[in-house]
Amino acid sequence: MTVKKYDSGLTLIVERNTSLRSVTAGIVVGTGSAYETPENNGISHFIEHMQFKGTQKRTAENIVSEFDRMGATYNAFTGKEYTCFYFKSIDEKLEQCFDVLSDLFVRSSYGARELDRERKVILEEINMSKDEPDGVCYDLLYATAFRNGSLGMEILGTKDNVSRFGKDDILAYKSRNYLPSNTVVALV
């Protein structure tokens, strides 16, 4: 395994396995609901969704079609302490897939129409989470254990917060948390 820390603070981890023809690449940011306040609870998850909704050079549809055309699987997830964006593809498509992933990670545009569209998706996700007993138990356990701390807040955030998040909120949060020194790029 090779680990390289750049002057910017970005960490790159590469693990080679020559017996496989697949590659998995992820960009992990050290931020999630544990780094939020009651006023911006849910913004990490909101940003995770919005990163796939278009960039300066790709529409949301272009992002999907480019990954699909290369046979890649891709997704993202948000936890209490980190957010991850990733893809898995055949090794010969690494550069093209990483170009799409890095573009959506660095150059997302956060258009007003996409913000409103995704807000509805997340509000429905919050509603659905209340119908999953294991998720409700998990949220109650954390809320009780970390009563006055950010670890007790839900990853999805509150409906009120999600309803009002805008581009300025996203950019402010990203400027504090989406930093090279808080990011790891990993390839296997």
What does this protein look like?
With 188 residues, the chain is α+β, with helices and mostly antiparallel strands. It has one domain: Cytochrome Bc1 Complex, Chain A, domain 1 (2-Layer Sandwich), CATH 3.30.830.10. 42% of the residues lie in helices and 19% in strands. It contains 7 helices and 6 strands; from the N terminus they run βββααββαααααβ. It has helices at residues 43-50, 60-69, 94-106, 112-129, 133-145, 159-164, 167-177, and strands at 2-5, 11-14, 22-29, 73-78, 83-90, 183-187. The chain has a 6-stranded mixed β-sheet with strand order 1-2-6-3-5-4, covered by helices on one side. The protein is globular. The termini are close together. The model has no long low-confidence stretch (mean pLDDT 96).
Set down the secondary structure blueprint.
Blueprint: E1 2-5, E2 11-14, E3 22-29, H1 43-50, H2 60-69, E4 73-78, E5 83-90, H3 94-106, H4 112-129, H5 133-145, H6 159-164, H7 167-177, E6 183-187
Parallel strand pairs: 2-6
Antiparallel strand pairs: 1-2, 3-5, 3-6, 4-5
Fraction in beta strands: 15-25%
Assign the CATH architecture.
2-Layer Sandwich
Biggest beta sheet attributes: 6 strands, mixed
DSSP strand count:
6
CATH class identity = Alpha Beta
Instruction: Provide a count of the helices.
Output: 7
> How large is the radius of gyration?
17 Å
Query: What is the total domain count?
Result: 1
Structure described in brief:
The chain is 42% helix and 19% strand. The chain has 188 residues and is α+β, with helices and mostly antiparallel strands.
